[in-house]
Amino acid sequence: MARMAGRRALFALPILMAVTFGVFAVAAASPFDPVKAYTGTAGLTASEQTLAEIRANLGADEPFVNRWWNWLINALQGELGDSSVMRQPVVDVISERIGWSVLLAVTAFAIAILLGTTLGVLAGRRPGGWLDRGVSSAAYTLEAAPAFWLGLLAIWFFALELGVLPAGGLTDTASDVVTFDQVATHLVLPSAVLGVSQMPWFYLYVRQGVSDALDEDPVRGARARGLSERTVLLGHALRSGMLPMLTLIGSRVPELITGALLVETVFSWPGIAAATVTAATSVDFPLLAALTVLATTAVLLGNLLSDLLYGLADPRVGFDG
Q: Does the pLDDT at position 317 exceed 60?
């Protein structure tokens, strides 16, 4: 496991360098002017000399290769620079928001895995049954439903029609104090929406895996030895059926990140979504590069986690990848 993690870490370095280089290249070709985003309405009346000085101070007049290299050298020393739009260090911008984004993503991922696995086992136990047909139809429908549409639908039904859950935010509007109860209540809708949007893939993988495992000779032999159906299902079929699902965890991380950004926006969740949108539209090079590295690192860690879990679940595979 340690050797695999080490190899992946070495492999990740050139990937992260290439990704950040691409960010600076795309941002340089963007039609958005970072100086106009920095000055706002004041830039409409500012003189060309003033704008030129601001452009020089921001480094926006340098070739993007120079900006990228300077940012990379500083980042390797632990200095991510200052956000030109947020007017604060990039480290502070991320640290104030990343915890809430991680809370939302982890909760949603847990919901997706638990719900998808449970329904997949029940449906795979009797393929073609009423539960299998109903849940599979719902899963295929949810696959095509955008996360933001599910979020708006959830707000309309649970917040506006029933009034049982808050429509968004982190706490009640009348309260300035962040408490566990309020955060938990406000987390229900966004995490459920994000989790349900990710659930179909886990459900379909587990359902197919369990269905195939129940037809294998070892499972038939377990039944012939008189083992209970619960033991056969959970001890044999589920373990074999979940192996393909483990590889799905890493591949769902990019979708999870994208969905989390949309869900955060819909529910006004104080994560990194707003900072990401602002950094992209304002061509905020330091913040945009840092957020991209963060997302890329999450994807790489997700892929590593999938391989480690698969190797632990099936010792025949090992950790040679």
A: no
Q: Given the structure tokens 């708006």, which residue do they identify?
A: 152
Pair of tokens at residue 138: 């719902």
Q: Please, what are the domains in the chain?
A: 1-321 (1.10.3720.10)
Cβ–Cβ < 8 Å for 280, 272: no
Output the pLDDT for position 318. Answer: 54
CA distance 210 to 206: 6
Provide Rg for the chain, Cα atoms: 24
- Rounded distance, CA 59 to CA 67, Å? 7
pLDDT above 80 (res 142)? yes
Distance in angstroms (rounded) separating the CA atoms of residues 216 and 5: 34
How many of the other CB atoms lie within 10 Å of CB of 25?
A: 13
The answer, yes or no, to whether residue 316 has pLDDT greater than 90, is no
**CB-CB contact of 266 with 186 (8 Å):** no
Whole-number Å distance between alpha carbons of 186 and 165: 7
pLDDT of residue 207: 85
Burial of 66 (0-12, 13-18, 19+ CB in 10 A): exposed
Residues 39 and 3: their CA atoms lie apart, in Å, by 49
What is the 8-class DSSP label of residue 40? G
3-state secondary structure of 83: strand
pLDDT at 188: 92
CA angle 284, 286, 289 (to 5 degrees): 95
- Take residue 106 and report the two structure tokens written for it: 């982890």
From the centroid of its chain, how far is CA 107?
A: 11
- Give the pLDDT confidence of 245-302 residue by residue, as tens digits: 777 777 777 778 878 888 988 898 888 877 887 777 777 777 888 888 888 888 787 7
- pLDDT recorded at residue 46: 64
- How many angstroms separate the CA atoms of 291 and 114, rounded? 29
